[in-house]
Write a structure and sequence with these properties.
Blueprint: E1 5-13, E2 16-21, E3 24-30, H1 32-42, E4 47-51, H2 58-72, E5 77-80, H3 86-94, E6 99-102, H4 104-108, H5 111-120, E7 125-134, E8 137-142, E9 147-152, H6 153-162, E10 167-172, H7 184-193, E11 198-201, H8 207-215, E12 221-224, H9 226-229, H10 235-244
Parallel strand pairs: 1-4, 1-12, 4-5, 5-6, 6-7, 7-10, 10-11, 11-12
Antiparallel strand pairs: 1-2, 2-3, 7-8, 8-9
Helix pairs in contact: 1-2
C-alpha cells in the first residue's frame, strides 16, 4: 500500500510566508527557507510553495527562492503561483523544484497542461483547483479564489486528468483556514472518480482531521499550513498518530 503524504504548504507574499482564513486576512508566518528546512527535518514528505505576490518581478524572485530552498532541503517540493508558460516551468525546474503547480493559467488555457506534460512529463505537473460551493455546486475559482468561473469541479478534474496532469491539489475555499476539517465527502468523490493522486487542502485543525481525510476522504496526501507554521502540531507527532490509527506513513 502506498504511504500517505503530509505536505506543509507555504504561501509566499513578498518573500515571506503568510497565512489567512478563507483566502484573506493574511498574517506573517516566517521565512520560507527556514521553515522549509525545519519541516524537512521534522519528517514532511514534500513541500508546496505558492507565491501569492502580484509583482512583476515574480519569476526572478521565485527562481531565487527555489534555488535557496533546493540548497537546504532534501525532500521533493512543488512551486506554484503565476506560472503560465513552458519557460516559467523550465526556469523553476532548473533551479531545483521537483514539480510545478498551475491553477488560473490552466483554466484560461487548458492546452498548457498538455504542453507542459509533453515537455516535462506528467510527474512534474500538478494542477491546483480552488473551489467553493455556490447554490450547492462546486465552482472553480481563479486568482487566489477571487474570480468565480462557471467551471464545475468534477468536470474540470476529469479534463485535467485527461490532459495528462500527474496530480490534483484540491483546496476547498469553504474550509480553508477554518480548522474545521477537510471537505471529505467531495474529496472521496474526486478520489473515486479520478485515477491520479488527490491532495487534500483546506481545513486542517487537529490530528483527527488528517485521519478522517485519509480514511473518509480517500486522499493520497494532506496539505496544511497554519497548524504547522504556528506550532499547533509537530509533523512527527502527527505521523505517529496516523500510524497508530492504521494509516501507512513514512516515519
Amino acid at each position: 500500500m502506498l504511504t500517505k503524504r503530509i505536505i506543509p504548504c507555504l504561501d509566499i507574499k513578498d518573500g515571506r510566508t503568510v497565512k489567512g482564513v478563507n483566502f484573506v486576512d493574511l498574517r506573517d508566518a516566517g521565512d520560507p527557507v527556514e521553515l522549509a528546512e525545519v519541516y524537512a527535518n521534522e519528517g514532511a514528505d514534500e513541500l508546496v510553495f505558492l507565491d501569492i505576490s502580484a509583482t512583476e518581478e515574480r519569476r526572478k524572485t521565485l527562481a531565487d527562492l527555489v534555488k535557496r530552498v533546493a540548497e537546504k532541503v532534501n525532500i521533493p517540493f512543488t512551486v506554484g503561483g503565476g506560472i503560465s508558460s513552458v519557460e516559467d516551468v523550465d526556469i523553476l525546474l532548473h533551479n531545483g523544484a521537483d514539480k510545478v503547480s498551475i491553477n488560473s493559467s490552466a483554466v484560461k488555457n487548458p492546452d498548457l497542461i498538455n504542453e507542459l506534460v509533453a515537455k516535462f512529463g506528467s510527474q512534474c505537473i500538478v494542477v491546483a483547483i480552488d473551489a467553493k460551493q455556490i447554490n450547492g455546486v462546486w465552482k472553480v475559482h481563479l486568482m487566489g479564489g477571487k474570480v468565480p468561473t462557471e467551471l464545475e469541479l468534477f468536470q474540470w478534474a476529469k479534463e485535467v486528468e485527461e490532459r495528462g496532469a500527474g496530480e490534483i491539489l484540491f483546496t476547498s475555499m469553504d474550509h480553508d483556514g477554518t480548522k474545521n476539517g477537510f471537505a471529505n465527502k467531495t474529496l472521496a468523490r474526486l478520489s473515486t472518480e479520478r485515477n491520479i493522486p488527490i491532495i487534500a487542502s483546506g481545513g486542517a485543525g487537529n490530528m483527527q482531521h488528517f485521519i478522517d481525510t485519509f480514511n473518509d476522504g480517500k486522499a493520497d496526501a494532506a496539505l496544511a499550513a497554519s497548524v504547522f507554521h504556528f506550532k499547533e502540531m509537530e509533523i512527527k507527532d502527527l505521523k505517529k498518530e496516523l500510524q497508530d490509527n492504521g494509516i501507512p506513513v513514512r516515519l
